[in-house]
């Protein structure tokens, strides 16, 4: 049986696959270069020695999905190591007197999100890298320098997501209003901001997963 006739199409397929990988890598690098002016991620003071947690800390494990530009769930941020999906734990901590969310990642840079920089904490149906529908992702909208970001985490337990939403309602001040009596339907800091794309509405995937 002459197998040499299969050699040209096999080689062509290998070349196409290699080209696709190269283009994906090139696009990733270009995106990171465009986002090169993003400030360094907040890190613990004194090398983490000032980090502390309460006697009953708010903490949860899950998967760090992605960070995107705020309100644009398809615009992934890859600079500063934010583009790598990974297992992670999220906890409410104190960093030398500064209340923070501590995002500890496995195999990728960990970082802090100071509560002073958080704009909202809400549930969302998905973002680039993970579409689950419903309210399957916990999304923290926060300010890093001049850029507003959305950081999404798929927590292992739904109860943990509810606890962090409740924590955000306590931590974040209500939006200021010029009215003496604000309307009863005024959004709270944990309400989801408007989202651009229309996403699936069902969440059929198990919560606990590998990155």
TrEMBL record:
Residues 182-197 have a biased composition (Pro residues). Pfam families: bPH_11 (PF25362). The chain crosses the membrane at residues 6-28. Residues 58-165 form the PH domain. Keywords: Membrane, Transmembrane, Transmembrane helix. InterPro entries: PH_bac (IPR057446). Residues 169-211 are annotated as: Disordered. It comes from the Bacteria. This is PH domain-containing protein. The lineage of its organism: Bacteria, Bacillati, Actinomycetota, Actinomycetes, Micrococcales.
């Amino acid at each position: 049986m002459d197998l040499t006739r299969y050699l040209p199409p096999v080689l062509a397929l290998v070349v196409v696959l290699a080209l696709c990988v190269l283009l994906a890598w090139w696009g990733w690098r270009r995106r990171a270069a465009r986002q090169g002016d993003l400030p360094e991620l907040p890190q613990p003071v004194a090398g983490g020695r000032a980090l502390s947690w309460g006697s009953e800390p708010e903490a949860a494990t899950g998967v760090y999905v992605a960070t995107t530009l705020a309100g644009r769930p398809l615009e992934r941020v890859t600079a500063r190591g934010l583009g790598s999906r990974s297992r992670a734990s999220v906890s409410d901590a104190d960093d030398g007197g500064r209340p923070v969310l501590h995002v500890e990642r496995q195999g990728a840079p960990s970082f802090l999100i100071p509560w002073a920089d958080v704009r909202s904490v809400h549930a969302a149906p998905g973002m680039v890298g993970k579409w689950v529908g419903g309210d399957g992702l916990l999304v923290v909208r926060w300010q890093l320098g001049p850029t507003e970001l959305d950081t999404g985490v798929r927590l292992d337990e739904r109860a943990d997501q509810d606890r962090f939403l409740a924590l955000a309602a306590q931590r974040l001040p209500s939006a200021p209003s010029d009215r003496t009596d604000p309307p009863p339907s005024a959004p709270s800091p944990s309400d989801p901001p408007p989202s651009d794309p229309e996403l699936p509405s069902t969440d059929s995937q198990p919560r606990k997963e590998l990155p």
